[in-house]
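Entry 14. Structure prediction run on the chain below.
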Amino acid sequence: MAFRDVLKASVYVVMYARNVLFSRATETFLKNLADRVAENPQVKKYIKSNLRTWLINDYPDVKRIRKAGSQDPEWLHDALERGDDVYSLDLDDDEIEELITEWIYYLNTLSGDISRISIPQLKVKYENYVENKFKEDYRNGEEVAHSYSDGFTWKLVFGESALKREGELMNHCVGDYCSAVSKGGVKIYSLRDARNKPHVTLEVRPNGTLQQAKGNSNKAIKVDYVPYVIDFLRRMHIKVRDADPELLRSGILFTGKDYIDIRSMPPNYSIGGSLTLEDLNFPIHFPRGLTITSLRVNATPVTFDQGLTVDGLLWLSDIDRVELPANTTVYNLRITDVRSVSIQPGFHAEGIVRIVNAGSVELPPNMWVEEDLILRSSRISQLPEGLHVGGVLNIAGTQIQEIPSSVSYGKLIADKSFHNKTFGVNRKAEMNKIMEELDDFDAFDWKPL
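Output returned:
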């Protein structure tokens, strides 16, 4: 039954009450209304009395209870033993809960005695309030595009005074867009709180493509408002470039199919294409089992959970600390200008691993690199047991003075001062030859592959 039909069928009677058991979720919803939404004692009392009575008496979507469980209240057992009709009530409907919440926000704006307002009367009053507010907004050069139960709204801003107000309160230049808006060259949307204060401004082109997404003073959008932005982009079918940098700086990633907050990605998530995160002012945690085509992170704090798979290049730079978790698989790995690098066991690279200018490097036993391992000018004094390098092992500019016998590699590049007591896999003659070839080698003249 549609909610409007629920209200049409409603008869407000307080003389008789059905035996109704509210679900735990419905009890929590009503408690949150009273504790978090109601702004004064009168509205709190209305929720506990008028609203609750209406749900008990008149809400039609209830189910007959025929047997009580061990966790059910004593009164339910007694009622069933007497043969009374008892019903369970679970709102379990986002649309209904959202509308009820909007009613409570409306009641917060009223003065005087509200105890005699029935729920059907409240419905009519609220609808008139919304209609009048829409008319008032339109006269002021604004139109509600979407509203939420917590009082937040998205407004289309088109009037000159409204655009100037948006620019002044948000400390950006949207007030200069009056001509472009009036000619249909751009649409401006503003996220407003319950007091009509703006927090996010979106610029959308006539073809429905997002051009700009700004927080106050052209800064990134605050994390509290990101869910509203993601919801609105989905709801309005606004077109966004994959990995749009304007949104990324606020933590919003468009994957080509959907929008996600990169601060709260689910486990085993897969991201197709390349992703670059640069100079973000908040930390990023990638979840367990993440799969991504390629990833570049620069000057942004980042952590990874185990089972990371990067099909192409994983490039990490200008970060304080990098720790690659257990069972990381990459094609190529590049780490530059990082203070501390730690790679956990189970690491496998199908291509080249390049760790350059790192403050300290810790590699795991049995690390496997199919092609080259380049540790040039990084602070590392020993190689792990069981290391396999299919191509060149470059330790120029490091503190490594010997190579364990369990380490295998194709070719070695090292400083002239390098000496090795155990060359591993019986390669003393080859080492002598390599050292002769490197007599004129200068580590600072080495060019990356």
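Residues 3-16, 420-426, 439-449 have pLDDT under 50 and may be disordered.
Filed with the rest of this week's runs.
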